[in-house]
Amino acid sequence: MEWDSNSESDLSGDEEEEEEVEEESGEGLGFMLRKRGGGGLPFPVDRLLQPSPCGFVVTDALEPDNPLIYVNSVFEMVTGYRAEEVLGRNCRFLQCRGPFAKRRHPLVNPTVVAEIRRCLEEGIEFEGELLNFRKDGSPLMNRLRMTPIYGDDETITHIIGIQVFTEVTLDLGPLPGSLAKEPARASDRFRFNISLSGVVSDGSRNIGRGVCGIMQLSDEVLALKILSRLTPRDIASVGSVCRRLYELTKNEDLWRMVCQNAWGSETTRVLETVPGAKRLGWGRLARELTTLEAAAWRKLTVGGAVEPSRCNFSACAVGNRVVLFGGEGVNMQPMNDTFVLDLNSTNPEWQHVKVSSPPPGRWGHTLSCVNGSNLVLFGGCGRQGLLNDVFVLDLDAKHPTWREISSLAPPLPRSWHSSCTLDGTKLIVSGGCADSGVLLSDTFLLDLSMEKPVWREIPVAWTPPSRLGHTLSVYGGRKILMFGGLAKSGPLRFRSSDVFTMDLSEEEPGWRCVTGSGMPGAGNPGGIAPPPRLDHVAVSLPGGRILVFGGSVAGLHSASQLYILDPTEEKPTWRILNVPGRPPRFAWGHSTCVVGGTRAIVLGGQTGEEWMLSELHELSLASSVI
Ligand SMILES: Cc1cc2nc3c(=O)[nH]c(=O)nc-3n(C[C@H](O)[C@H](O)[C@H](O)COP(=O)(O)O)c2cc1C
Predict the structure, then answer these.
(1) I want to staple 286 with a disulfide (CB 3.0 to 4.6 A). Which of 10, 186, 232, 445 is the partner?
(2) 196-224: pLDDT as tens digits
């Protein structure tokens, strides 16, 4: 594990920064662009600041021939070389075609290599482009940037290298004795223009520590700029390399930027609203949300009441408030009342909110949060049967009023479907149960940022088996993940533990089976998959991992066990997450909402007759919020 466990107190940001975190203007890099004495910098820095997955390596400059002591996962993934194969070696092996080549490939520009050598000898920064090769022999263009790191006594102790790899098409013929990729077409030869003067480094550059001629930025600012493109794990690794790097990686603005790159601006914005998050610091928050070392269950007793008593309601978080709508009362009475629980208050209590024009009562519907303080309600089962209407409510309006959104071509009326929101503005609805118990497998999107929102079915070539009671979670900005539910299998219906994902940023999105029992194309999951279930809860963590909990599970399995999956891994694997504290006793029929990005509030759970809404359980993912 890369996180430096000895540095806990240092990383905790005890000496709280008094300065307000700068208001983000999209890039959020103000701290790096500020010159002493104010004013902008006289060069275009935007290009350098684009966050993109980069290779990142560190070498030990005190050892002969600069051996690698760290490579990040992007480096491993792109080059095909695993860390254990390359640590201890000089990085020049990338200039040789494949692991068995003895010599630098003749197409590698010797002028660039000589310039690297010169920069290393003179202890200055290098930036330039040169040809490299993957382990399988295929060529890659590498925009390489190297920055020396000085120790306390002005000697260079480490060099960090950052690699932006791009594809290059060269007809090099097959790699002797290997199953290398098919050679590219001859016509593509040299399509990528390998610049002979691909060196940006400038001989006249100021060499001294503290000033870098090229940018007139200090080494520290430059290093921070490079570091800000890495992942939280990389930064943690870099910080454990040496004292100087550790000092560099303590920068709160750097951590905020790294968190924003890794988790997206929406998530970082939400995390900023967490009381105490500022005190905890971004570095600590990143660490706790990555390692989940501080995750714990705790019980929350809240005041007020949700009356009359009900089940099958729907709840969601709006900032630090939990909102509950509708549900099924006694004698299957569909309810249409709205309750709010403000978890920011000292003594949180359920409050019945008087809202004008309430939608018809219902259960088995979904409630989601969009555009900051707006709630969107879809579908469910009402007095007259199934519904497909959409209502929105601005919770912060002076006179909160439910407003119906009429839209053409809505999805079929349904209940027990699942919903999530994308980009904070789009409602996604999938599956559920239609008239006469027919299960659905469609996916619809409603863009609520439009003046007249229009439903759009997402056309896909293949759909997972139709289902109800599943969950839909968003990760990596525009990807959705479907888990579990009661799924159709021929004439039968089974609880499912299948995971499907779809990337909605693709031109033609399609469902992919990630892991599951018997799905076509499914990899056999390593690890411990959660027993099949429906009516469970799923929580998306910053960075993309999904936590699954509760639900209706067959047999004697414990549904209160927490399972975690990282869909961004090459081969996603379920793991059990053991956290201290007492989970909810009754583990199905829950509803959950994530408040402030770090608190999963679990409501309800069936005791048999009563639904307990005054005793909530909270799975806190970071230690900041108590
Ligand atoms: C931190 C660091 C990162 C480097 N990354 C690369 C790289 O990604 N690709 C590459 O071809 N060379 C890379 N190099 C350069 C080579 O390791 C080597 O220094 C260069 O080929 C010049 O030395 P040589 O003439 O002895 O091979 C890197 C060097 C350092 C210090």
Answers:
(1) 232
(2) 333 333 333 332 333 333 334 456 676 77
Per the structure, the complete domain to which residue 446 belongs is given by: 296-620
Q: Output b/e per residue, 140-176; b: 16+ Cβ within 10 A.
A: bbbbbbbbbbbeeeeeebbbbbbbbbeebbbebeebe
Low pLDDT (below 50) residues in the chain: 1-2, 4-51, 179-217, 519-524, 608-609, 625-626
What's the N-to-C CA distance of the chain in angstroms?
Answer: 27
Is 323 inside a domain boundary? yes
Looking at ligand 1, which residue's alpha carbon is closest to its atom 13?
A: 91
- Give residue ranges with CB within 6 A of ligand 1: 57, 59, 66, 90-92, 94-95, 113, 116-117, 120, 130, 132, 142, 144, 146, 159-161, 163
Quick: pLDDT tens for 144-158: 999 998 877 788 989
Last residue of a domain, one of 167, 199, 226: 167
* Cα pseudo-dihedral 577, 581, 586, 592, rounded to 10: -70
CATH of the domain at 98: 3.30.450.20
Residue 132 Cα: closest atom of ligand 1: 11
Number of independent structural domains in the chain: 3
Q: Which atom of ligand 1 is nearest to the CA of 59?
A: 1
* Co-location of 396 and 429 in the same domain: yes
Report which of 285, 293, 295 is spatially closest to residue 12, judged by C-alpha positions: 285
Closest C-alpha to ligand 1, atom 3: 161
pTM above 0.70, yes or no: no
Same domain, 396 and 314: yes
Q: How remote is the CA of residue 93 from the centroid of ligand 1, in Å?
A: 8
